[in-house]
Amino acid sequence: xxxxxxxxxxxxxxxxxxxxxxxxxxxxxxxxxxxxxxxxxxxxxxxxxxxxxxxxxxxxxxxxxxxxxxxxxxxxxxxxxxxxxxxxxxxxxxxxxxxxxxxxxxxxxxxxxxxxxxxxxxxx
Length: 124
Known about the structure:
The chain is an alpha/beta fold. Helix 2 (34-44) runs parallel beside helix 3 (60-69). It starts with a strand and ends with a helix. It is built from 5 helices and 5 strands, in the order E-H-E-H-E-H-E-H-E-H. A 5-stranded parallel sheet has the order 2-1-3-4-5, with helices on both faces. Residues 3-119 form the Response regulatory domain. This is Response regulator.
């Protein structure tokens, strides 16, 4: 079963996404701030990380860079979840170590496609 780490601090969104992902057969683990996301990623070794960028304690940018710097987590695909969809933001997210990004509000079918693509890229 594919394990997804969802790092999101807004209860409404993590509740919605985790329920929908579980219905699709994913094993979902949650973290509610960036530091917890890094810790859970190291402990759980998820197949994909969905990371909000505006998180408490440690922001998503720093968390992504931290995960990329650690050989244990460096190859886990990270998809940024963000309300920041301005020109140049995609490049900033990729520079921080994210493999892709998904603008909020979440388009669930599109997010599923991005998860599939991230997992395929990680296998290759």
